[in-house]
Amino acid sequence: MSLQWFRVPKDIVFGEGALEYLSTLEGKKATLVTGGSSMKRFGFLDEAKKQLEKAGMEVSIVDGVEPNPSIDTVVRGGKEMAEFKPDWIIAIGGGSALDAAKIMWVYYEYPETKFEDLVAGKFPRLRTQAKFIAIPSTSGTASEITAFSVITDTENHIKYPLVSYEITPDIALLDAALPAKMPAHITANTGMDVMTHAIEAYVSTAATSYTDPLAMEAIKLVYKQIPVAYAEGSNMKAREDMHNASTLAGMAFTNASLGLVHSLAHKIGGELGITHGLANAILLPYIVEYNMKATDKFAEIEKQLEIDDLVAELKELNKKVGIPTTLKEVTEVEMTEEKFNEVLDRMSKNAFADPCTLTNPRQSSAEDVKEIYKVAFYGTTAKNI
């Protein structure tokens, strides 16, 4: 018997003013986990704290989660929580804050946890001391809905996608007022991350009748609304649609998994520091082109979007939102040909070994992965791989 699962948080709370839901929680203590200063600067951290205090809770804050959260950060957060002993862990911010908080939760409840066990998928049973709420500030990672967390081993320059249904949040709290404050380039990177989640989940070898409609709806919403959200940051209809698309795509990929785009993005992010969403956006058209030989589901996407060439449309969508079409054009980190070639062999082997490779629609190899990296760096075609 081959059983499959479809699991998402017990509750998804969404709509205008959704942060007020925090005032209805029952408990004595809550810890807020956040990243840089944006949640504080825009007043959302204070608002969350106020709503929790309305519920009669004492509140602590674990902040300073970096863009690529490290093992040291999650262990530190777990220790701080162990001293405070919260009943609720509430992550508020971008995907990094949410991902980090999930693993802090593990170290809070089980301080002796070995990171290598988590990498191997050996997670302890959580909720012995706290429940978990995720409040995303970006419409992108969908960490609020998923059983995934990406943590970086900074010593070895490897990003590890950690997977367990234990770290699926109890409640996802969606308030479009938070992503409405995102700058345009973050809107672009996170929005194309949503498109990547949706497309990879749709063509995954583990896709089901439960995940396909969610993935397709997310694809349609992003295709229509990401140019609007990018150009008109305060357009709340576009923001709400993108926020919902992110969660829908998350519901799909946390159950159907992903593919080579994420495998390659994880490793180039770990090696060269490129932002995850940006790496996904650039790699996506090339890997769609590579995968087209293996499935007719891309043709279904073209039919639903009423377009003729998905690869060309994805490249055009990247251009519309200011994303370069090749890796060599990236300016946020030093992406020189010399640096790229220096890590290419190791990066290709590690990407092929990434768990996301398992559900890619086309069987690949480390050599194929190396060639895909090269075509995405130079902007050539993946048709010949």
UniProtKB/TrEMBL annotation:
It comes from the Bacteria. Residues 187-376 form the Fe-containing alcohol dehydrogenase-like C-terminal domain. The keyword Oxidoreductase applies. Pfam families: ADH_Fe_C, Fe-ADH. Keywords: Oxidoreductase. The keyword Oxidoreductase applies. Residues 9-175 form the Alcohol dehydrogenase iron-type/glycerol dehydrogenase GldA domain. GO terms for molecular function: alcohol dehydrogenase (NAD+) activity; metal ion binding. This is Iron-containing alcohol dehydrogenase. It comes from Vallitalea guaymasensis.
